[in-house]
Design a protein that fits this description.
single chain; four-stranded antiparallel sheet; 21% helix; 38% strand; binds inosinic acid
Length: 178
């Protein structure tokens, strides 16, 4: 079993790159059918969703715009319970079809804060695509509309996800070893 060490913690590989890419391709096909004639704005949440967003838009072969936002709530292994908005939302979301791209929906705190702020601009529609959904951890009512992978693993890294800034560059997904 392949393991890696980030800072003081050991992680083991649980989802290889090929499976992740396959799941994103499937998700891309679903999203493609829904958005091909809507010229959506794909809004990627930094930092964690940048690799997922890059992979996902390779499957969207129609006119679309790309933009970024940076909200975060995690410190180390725990959700901070407080949202830090370190990059504001774009201001042109009114009357547009918005696809918000998240790395992971865990408690749902970040997602619910983002949804609330985006809805203030009155978009034509707003849906959420996430690489990882942890349904058992959800504490808020907002759920993603599309998810590539569902898991119950407590803490994972890789494919854009980090532990204290390390691990984003791992090509596969790893979980914390107990
Ligand atoms: P939420 O607000 O609790 O849903 O958490 C969302 C954010 O916390 C994500 O966008 C990630 O940046 C981070 N996060 C949540 N769970 C994990 C995890 O298992 N590994 C790494 N980051 C995570």
């Amino acid at each position: 079993m392949e393991t890696i060490v980030l800072h003081e913690l050991e992680f083991q590989k649980i989802i290889p790159e090929a499976i992740i890419l396959e799941s994103i391709q499937k998700l891309g096909n679903t999203i493609r059918k829904e958005y091909y004639n809507l010229n959506p704005i794909v809004l990627v949440v930094l930092n964690g969703a940048f690799i997922f967003g890059a992979e996902l838009i390779k499957h969207l072969d129609f006119p679309m715009e790309l933009d970024f936002v940076r909200y975060r709530s995690y410190k180390g292994l725990e959700s901070g319970g407080e949202i830090i908005k370190s990059m504001a939302l774009p201001s042109n979301l009114s009357q547009r079809h918005i696809l918000l791209v998240e790395d992971i929906v865990d408690t749902g705190l970040t997602l619910s804060a983002l949804k609330k702020d985006i809805e203030l601009q009155k978009p034509a529609s707003l849906k959420i695509a996430t690489l990882i959904f942890k349904p058992l951890a959800l504490k808020y009512s907002e759920k993603p509309d599309f998810s590539a992978i569902e898991t119950s693993n407590p803490f994972i890294v890789g494919f854009g996800l980090d532990y204290k800034h390390l691990g984003r560059n791992l090509r596969s997904i790893y979980q914390l070893k107990d």
